[in-house]
Design goal:
2 copies of one chain form a homodimer.
Chain A lengths: L5 H15 L6 H8 L3 H13 L3 E4 L5 E4 L8 H9 L28 H12 L3 H4 L4 H6 L21
Antiparallel strand pairs in A: 1-2
């Protein structure tokens, strides 16, 4: 399966959540907001901090926030931070253990351009593209209706049954 | 890990091998040529036949061959045949079992363009791009050296130690 690891998937969810509201977010609050178990939230935040995608502030009033705008975080950076380099086959990153075909492989050493094409596709998407706007953002961008111009809406009586 | 399944990986290897030499190839011969275990070869060929990427001919002189030129088989078709639709997250193809975040997910329903971008990148690559030329092809395209023009190469005696 060409699938993200669970941790990479959760990392996207947590970054999207951090991008929805400014300020510091604690792991318990993020766990409540996203439905991801708190130990998993803590683990993902630790890895994202090491990759300089989120900033941690210690202390009683501490928490985590994005290290850069959500629109400046390519999906590829998140996947690489959580799962390592994008490599569709195990042989590319040196983890050849268990490949039965290595000795005679007719496609050996030809995967780099494919991995690069996938990486490019994923770097063209940012977490901002993936994140749904928060309720407060939706309100901020909600259309402002003009004041009523006097046309009354006629109330239609509901027939009693 | 954003990684092909072992079976998809082997399918690419087998298709590349089938593309190296015309004619019918038996599963035992393909197993010997690629180093992939014969039961695995048989399993992959069965799936590739169902996906109309290879043709099977029964009988004592039977075997398998490509159903179309190797340059007309996009990598995406092979991955989809072996692993199902390209979906980076489990929720996209309905397999949400085990996702802790589904209820509050801030990126829910936003993955389709990402999956489509990855599919497009993988459909731009064909098995022909991945396959190394066979020895016979290398010979066919090898430069033809002009006949020697009489300049003799002087043999340098190797000093005995």
């Amino acid at each position: 399966m060409l699938r993200l690891s669970k941790l990479a998937d959760y990392a996207v969810v947590l970054l999207a959540r951090l991008g929805q509201e400014d300020g510091l977010h604690t792991a318990p609050a993020l766990a409540t907001a996203t439905g991801i178990a708190e130990p998993t939230v803590a683990k993902v935040l630790r890895i994202l901090s090491q990759a300089c995608l989120v900033e941690a502030q210690r202390g009683a009033r501490g928490g985590h926030r994005l290290a850069k705008p959500i629109s400046a975080i390519p999906l590829s950076d998140v996947i690489i931070a959580m799962d390592g380099p994008i490599a569709l086959t195990a042989c590319v990153d040196g983890a050849t253990g268990g490949c039965e075909a290595e000795g005679h492989c007719p496609v050996r050493g030809r995967w780099d351009p494919v991995n690069e094409a996938v990486r490019a596709a994923l770097s063209a998407v940012t977490i901002s593209d993936l994140a749904r706007p928060s309720c407060s953002e939706l309100h901020r961008h909600a259309p402002v209706f003009p004041p009523a111009t006097g046309a009354a809406v006629k109330a239609v009586p509901v027939a009693a049954e």
